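Sample A.
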Amino acid sequence: MRSSTVRDAPGGASPALEGPVGRERGDSPARARPAASSGGPISLTGRGGIVVMFAAGVVCGLLSRWFGVPLLAGGGFAAGCALAAFATRPADLLTLVVSPPLVFFAATFTVVLATALGDGSLLRAVTVGVVTALASTAPWLFFGTVLVVVICLARGLRTNIRELRDKLAGVRLFEKEENENPVRWDESPTTTQERRRLHHGDVD
């Protein structure tokens, strides 16, 4: 008697188990949620990715100046760019893509300012140091930017660009509708005069 209900289930799907056996198999969402959430990868926001790039640039820049290894500054920044591109959530990839040049300049300025403290002319030391550092590590800036763009394209950057384009198109359409005159008079002068005459005639 019990086997016929399994065969007669619609679509060939087995019915839900009842009794203690069905309860022990763990259909409750409370048990399934911790297992699903525990294995998720770490994702950063757009600001978090920018902080990772900035921190990598500053730390590697300071180590490069202290140990006299110029390659460490640019290589560390490129590694930070790759790490941020992999760890940032897909919704904020567009923010991350446009950030490497500004983050690189800010990190370089911070490193030069930190190492120039105590010199005679701070302004001159910072200016010369920033220009020299940017000139020597410019290829690494280009390489880090390319890394971010390539990785973000593989992770769905085109979708963010498409969504931004749709939002801008919607804003333009909304502004165009607001600029139009909301009041439209479809009545011609002749029909207006005729209505006035009829109205005066009814009153008389």
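Sample B.
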Amino acid sequence: MAPLAESLAVNVLDAGSLLSAFGALGIAVVLFAETGLLVGFFLPGDSLLFTAGLLCVDGSRGPGHLSLPQVLAAAVAGALAGAQAGFWIGRRGGRALLARGRAKRLREGAVRAEELLTRYGHAKAIVLARFVPVVRTVLNPLAGALEVPARVFLLWQTVGGVIWTVGLVLAGYALGSSIPNVDRYLLPMVAVVVIVSLIPLALELRRARTRGRAGEGDMP
């Protein structure tokens, strides 16, 4: 009964708690829920991946040592399967599915996701969305609802999913391998990783605004 009680007491918002309770399997489940199910928009995908990379380092003092190959396989599988599930949910449910969402962050994420698709086109938007919390949750069903071609979505969600998952896991692993007792600084380092992951989107938005202003200046 004790192990069951500990599993039920896990904090789903804390990456360390999730990894301690469920290990690599928990990574796959969390990423599937965050990227495939609208109810998973609050889950800590970025910090989970980075923390998992840290816990793959030999001698880590975290909640439990993890296997790097298992973590990478679980992360990629969960992220890709989740995005694909979200796409088909959106294809079947349509935009009304997103309209019924009551969470403010979910509605805001849907607006930003649609802006990405409109401004950057399918390929770039699908890849960029992986690096933006909440947006990566709602863009997948939105792409299905907007009838993005299935082959196009599959290709670019795979590219984005692999870059996002493998990149963050290996970033955590590399830092953990090069800095002694790096897990002491876990929280600030996770915050830095999340901020850095938003830089590509910020640069794209800045370029788009610059091009928009230049276009307005050319109008008679």
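B remarks: DSSP finds nine helices and no strands in the chain. Residues 1-9 have pLDDT under 50 and may be disordered.
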